[in-house]
Amino acid sequence: MTKKPHKFHSLLHSADILEKRLATLLTPVGITPRQARILNMLSRVGEVSQTVLTEQFDVTSGSMSTMIDRLLKLGMIQRRKNPEDLRGDLISITDQGMAVLQEVRDVWQDIDELIEEKLGPEKAALLTELTRELKFALGGRVPGKDLKLPANQTTKRRRTHET
Q1: Contacts of 158 (CB under 8 A, 6+ apart)
Q2: Other C-beta atoms within 10 Å of 116: how many?
Q3: For position 158, what pLDDT does the model report?
């Protein structure tokens, strides 16, 4: 009996190729794809705790600390003590981070255009629809989209891209 090839391998391989291309395109910007997503979330939800970022991106606190430290050194975010919990920090995007995020969005647009060029507009739209549906069906989420901030934590929400 001949087994059929696993259907998800092509999806994984395509995602890997796209992520490598994205990382290469972001190299001149100086950040990784995940750091770009952190900037994007901060631009949408405003100031949040480092703990919230860790939870929203489903990474370890050590991994998030490393990303936060790098973004701080680059001047893309700022950190301040949480006045409600002095053990915790609040993270927000800086003007420099917003400028870099615009460059990131241009790169994201380039990737979208590459997909459309390779598949055509109809198939690219269908791919987007199906992969979003799969992401949510598997329990994925848009970091920060349904975030309920504590009443004492104010935020300036901005309308931006979801990732």
Answers
A1: 43, 44, 46
A2: 16
A3: 42
